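Can you make up a protein sequence with its backbone structure tokens?

===
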Amino acid sequence: MKLNLHGRNAVYVGVGIAALVIALALILVSVLGSSGGTSASTTSAAPSTTAPSSSTPLIEPKLPGAAATAALFRGVPQHLNQLGNPNAKVTLIEFADPQCPYCQRFALDVLPTIVKEYVRTGKVKLVLFAINILGPNSDNGLRGIYAAGLQGKLWNFADLLYKSQGAENSGWITDDLLRQTGNSIPGLDTTKLLSDRFSPEVNSAITASSQQASNARIGGTPTFFAGRTGGTLQQMAISSLTPGAFRPTLDSLVK
């Protein structure tokens, strides 16, 4: 199976102050504020000198694995569903469902090595197409993932969801879990994330990801495509969800 990313017509969806651009099968989102800033921008507040009152809400404990997730992605560029140098020589695409246990295995056992050896070094950029193939509860996860992407934290959010994964279609992806996940990611505005879940931008991102999965005839997750950026990506034949199963293909492409 080949996924030709070159020469595909771009689709432009204008929504209010935001524009969703689907080009070359990679979803890119730019959220324009009144001053033209991006969604990943942050502001620093002056430290408070006032002691907290008794009505101040308690700080919720971070989810298990939050520190490791923050360290894994710290300093790596993110733009919606892309991770790494946008000009990297090689692109690796993953189609994944947040409820899929094999996707969880990739996230826990393989992704850290790929980020360390290929993404941080600028050789490979990753693209995640989060899709729903397992059931209704996956949709709640997709909405949280893509809403986090509007703030440049999609990969952090997806990684933490996998670390909290429950049984398929048991209803484990609750609004409370999405809130806890958001609160466990430094720099992410959880209130904004929860309100963005049903925004036109997120709706369009989910629809576009589903369409890309259909175009690529994805029958299960995780499914991977790799190739030179801007060219035709080849579906990878993965023998096991271990770093060693990915290295031969990636090493040959980055030469």
Summary: Strands lie at 2-4, 11-15, 18-23, 26-31, 78-79, 82-83, 90-96, 124-130, 223-228, 232-235. Confidence is low (pLDDT under 50) at residues 4-58.
